[in-house]
Amino acid sequence: MKNYNLFSFILLAILIGSCEDKEKDKSDWFLLQTSQNKAQFTPQETAVLTISNPKNKTIDSVVYYSNDIKLGSVSGSSNFTFSLANVKLGYQNLKALVYFEKDSAAATHRIELVSDIEPKLLKYTLLNTYPHDSKAYTQGLEFHRDTLYEGTGNGTGAGTLTKGVSSLRKTNYKTGEIYKKVEYPEAIFGEGITVLNNKVYQLSWQNLIGFIYDADTFKEIRRFDYSKRIEGWGLCNDGEKLYQSDGTEKIYMLHPETLQIEGNINVYSGSYKIKAVNELEWIDGKIYGNIYQKDAIAIINPKNGAVEAVIYLGDLKKLVTQHPDIDVLNGIAYNPKTKTLFVTGKNWDKLFEIRVEE
User: How far apart are CA 321 and CA 263, in angstroms?
Assistant: First the structure.
């Protein structure tokens, strides 16, 4: 009986191995590529997908996918035209499922969709200068009912992230007076904030948790776990959903109740990914994002991730009192009543009101 079981086990292993070898053998039966034979495309183009059939199999049909979303199908081995007009920027992982002679096999290929927009360099006019707490390592900044809300992190400038206290605060932006303040233990590194439906959402950096507060009382409503192991950087909202940056070129869309990620965009300027997207602000249908260590704000199309314009604010840093803990520009708050932008930086002692123009 034992010998019989051993023989059966060996036979089964041989059969499984043969099936696996058969599947592996099919991996090069078909080749998916584009007729343009290039790696990068822009939204104005179409990618013509083709199937090479070196073994001359009789192909019944081909079903095409991009990032696991079905694009369509063709009879036989006809080419497939993939329109890129409404596709988000970034890598498109293409797959062709080829049906042939009562069998099937998959072929894969990857292209990169980049921006065809040359960003405009916008100018600004400095309107006012207000006091700002020089010990505030600014991570998030947003107006709500004429009051400036700010989130800060543990930091003392120059990349030092071991001292200080993270906080959530609301202030009188004209005087710098702090109306209310929540401080975190040193283990929590505070990050970006946004206010939606009278609730303040605040991220943490690497703790993988976020916090939700009543915007009036600062009473903690609840905490939430990140649905993906990413860092928390910037946060904003469009009135319906949240947008979160994680220090890469990605900006994620989150449901405000479940806090689950529902999609993302990749930020591109021309053919280049723009990484280190930091503090975010939603203004007139666009995402304004600080680019970490660049002292600049990128204006991003939230539908596809294209950078449409840039505001360079490096000159403002020269107007701040220089001290050992001063760090980069970070903090964007739009006041809808004055239609002006308020910007500051990590451990800056000034808050600047500017008007942006082409």
Answer: 41
Q: Spell out the residues 6+ positions from residue 18 whose beta carbon is closer than 8 angstroms to its own.
A: none
Same domain, residue pair 267 and 310: yes
Are 345 and 331 spatial neighbours (Cβ–Cβ below 8 Å)?
A: yes
Q: How many domains does the chain have?
A: 2
Q: What is the pLDDT of residues 180-196, one digit of tens each?
A: 999 999 899 999 999 99
Quickly state the pLDDT bin for 165 (edges 50, 70, 90): confident
Q: Which two tokens stand for residue 129?
A: 């200068």
Is the pLDDT higher at 19 or at 238?
Answer: 238
d(CA 73, CA 350): 59
User: How far apart (Å, rounded) are the C-alpha atoms in residues 342 and 127?
Assistant: 10
Residue 127 sits in the same domain as residue 109: no
Last residue of a domain, one of 113, 131, 156: 113
Largest pairwise CA distance in the chain: 91
Summarize pLDDT for 118-132 with one digit per residue, the tens. 999 999 999 999 999
Q: Residue 197 falls within a domain, yes or no?
A: yes
Q: Which amino acid is at 278?
A: N
